[in-house]
């Protein structure tokens, strides 16, 4: 069976490499080279780099063009696999491949249909997620399911970490799915009715830079998921106010939850006058920020582990605080 693989970012590389170990991938469709760094140079996608390493032909065509349709027919593509390709496919090209197009999606469909299922899963503090393989149709992630696998979320991952875990899991499931298709031993089943999914878990809209603004009036347990969901991209952030400088943007790269009765925190907290949500609490080795209270606790607490101050390099929060001249009433909003 002649397989076309379509994908673009790093999360699609493991599925591509794993599929090539046991199946006949004859070409790779990916997005054209794009400017992805401050150097303003055109950079190939991670999938393109992997395809070239695997000595596979790389296609960067518009998949909805007549020319691409002719190329697919000329190359006698039997089956197409999509992993985070990043472009919608129209019905003529969906119909052009005999065994169809199959998408590896990083959620347990129909939960979190859309562009950012992993980010939305983490932001919602869901205890579990998974991978789904389904046949593409004209609707957004609505096609019939072939396989699913559930994954428990542990160790408070950020988006990149969970995506890499799901990528590895999905790569193995994808091989299983293609084996079933090639041997004609597969069965489709329809997704559950979307009405069975809570309203706030139906659409996985892309997270914007504005969405990534941290709101410290929220409890730390909620903000923890928000910050991890927004990292590394677009990057959680806040505005820092100090006694000595104009306000500036502070990116929150890595955080941790701290219990209210943590001894080191309590020692530093007693030195702060007029604490409020967003107040920074600084000791010699650690930096905390006060968040909204819960139950009888006046504040909940996040520890800042790694930050990037505006115009600076990424560094530990403790190193940043030592050189930042924060003053006595620094706070974030």
**Global geometry:** elongated
Q: Could you give me the name of the CATH homologous superfamily of the largest domain?
A: Formyl transferase, N-terminal domain
Order of helices and strands: EHEEEHEHEHEEHEEHEHEEHEEEEHE
The low-pLDDT segments are none
**Cα end-to-end separation:** 56 Å
Proper CATH architecture of the largest domain: 3-Layer(aba) Sandwich
Structure description:
With 333 residues, this protein is an alpha/beta fold. It folds into two domains: 3-201, Rossmann fold (3-Layer(aba) Sandwich), CATH 3.40.50; 220-332, Roll (Methionyl-tRNA Fmet Formyltransferase, Chain A, domain 2), CATH 3.10.25. Helix content is 26%, strand content 26%. The chain has helices at residues 13-20, 46-53, 66-74, 91-96, 117-123, 159-182, 220-229, 263-269, 317-323; strands at residues 3-7, 25-29, 34-35, 42-43, 58-59, 79-83, 101-105, 113-114, 128-135, 145-152, 203-204, 237-241, 248-258, 280-282, 287-291, 300-309, 314-316, 331-332. The chain has a seven-stranded mixed β-sheet. Strands 12, 13, 14, 15, 16, 17 and 18 form a seven-stranded antiparallel β-sheet that branches. Strands 3-4 form a two-stranded antiparallel ribbon. The longest helix has 24 residues, at 159-182. The radius of gyration is 23 Å and the shape is elongated. The mean pLDDT is 94.
Quick recap:
With 333 residues, this protein is an alpha/beta fold.
